[in-house]
Amino acid sequence: MRLGSSGDDTCGTGNLLKRNLWGEGADKRAHHNALERKRRDHIKDSFHSLRDSVPSLQGEKASRAQILDKATEYIQYMRRKNHTHQQDIDDLKRQNALLEQQVRALEKARSSAQLQANYPSTDNSLYTNPKGSTISAFDGGSDSSSDSEPEEPQSRKKLRMEAS
């Protein structure tokens, strides 16, 4: 028995082929739709995550454009804040280096004074500083009149306190 011998292919392979091609097309379309839905869900979740990361938008309903605008503002604000903090860190490092230098100078002066104490001189280790005040080698050259008040470093920067 030959199928479609008369050119009439009502039950033959032609219809079967058309059905398979149509079925494959539907499968491809369904697969593409599923991938597209997954992509849109990922974008939606990413916007929700971004919205929740911006303090001024947390828990609020906002459009995607608002989320992007506020996120941009927040990033710029944080960059400025980080820059300010980095400047504060650099200032504190400089202050720390100066203080360490002062400590080394004072330790050197103390050891020098201890050597002079072993070999007493007639002036009892008193010196005159450039301002004309008499100082001891042990006080580090402070021109302060009171020994009870700690001296503030002149280059000290007051840090700003920001509410977070």
TrEMBL record:
<dbReference type="InterPro" id="IPR036638">
    <property type="entry name" value="HLH_DNA-bd_sf"/>
</dbReference>
<keyword id="KW-0597">Phosphoprotein</keyword>
<protein>
    <recommendedName>
        <fullName>Protein max</fullName>
    </recommendedName>
</protein>
<dbReference type="GO" id="GO:0140297">
    <property type="term" value="F:DNA-binding transcription factor binding"/>
</dbReference>
<dbReference type="Pfam" id="PF00010">
    <property type="entry name" value="HLH"/>
</dbReference>
<keyword id="KW-0678">Repressor</keyword>
<dbReference type="GO" id="GO:0001227">
    <property type="term" value="F:DNA-binding transcription repressor activity, RNA polymerase II-specific"/>
</dbReference>
<dbReference type="InterPro" id="IPR011598">
    <property type="entry name" value="bHLH_dom"/>
</dbReference>
<keyword id="KW-0805">Transcription regulation</keyword>
<dbReference type="GO" id="GO:0000785">
    <property type="term" value="C:chromatin"/>
</dbReference>
<feature type="region of interest" description="Disordered">
    <location>
        <begin position="111"/>
        <end position="164"/>
    </location>
</feature>
<dbReference type="GO" id="GO:0070888">
    <property type="term" value="F:E-box binding"/>
</dbReference>
<dbReference type="GO" id="GO:0071943">
    <property type="term" value="C:Myc-Max complex"/>
</dbReference>
<comment type="similarity">
    <text>Belongs to the MAX family.</text>
</comment>
<keyword id="KW-0804">Transcription</keyword>
<feature type="compositionally biased region" description="Polar residues">
    <location>
        <begin position="111"/>
        <end position="136"/>
    </location>
</feature>
<dbReference type="GO" id="GO:0032993">
    <property type="term" value="C:protein-DNA complex"/>
</dbReference>
<dbReference type="GO" id="GO:0071339">
    <property type="term" value="C:MLL1 complex"/>
</dbReference>
<feature type="domain" description="BHLH">
    <location>
        <begin position="27"/>
        <end position="78"/>
    </location>
</feature>
<dbReference type="GO" id="GO:0046983">
    <property type="term" value="F:protein dimerization activity"/>
</dbReference>
<dbReference type="GO" id="GO:0042802">
    <property type="term" value="F:identical protein binding"/>
</dbReference>
<keyword id="KW-0238">DNA-binding</keyword>
<keyword id="KW-0010">Activator</keyword>
<keyword id="KW-0539">Nucleus</keyword>
<dbReference type="GO" id="GO:0045944">
    <property type="term" value="P:positive regulation of transcription by RNA polymerase II"/>
</dbReference>
<dbReference type="GO" id="GO:0070443">
    <property type="term" value="C:Mad-Max complex"/>
</dbReference>
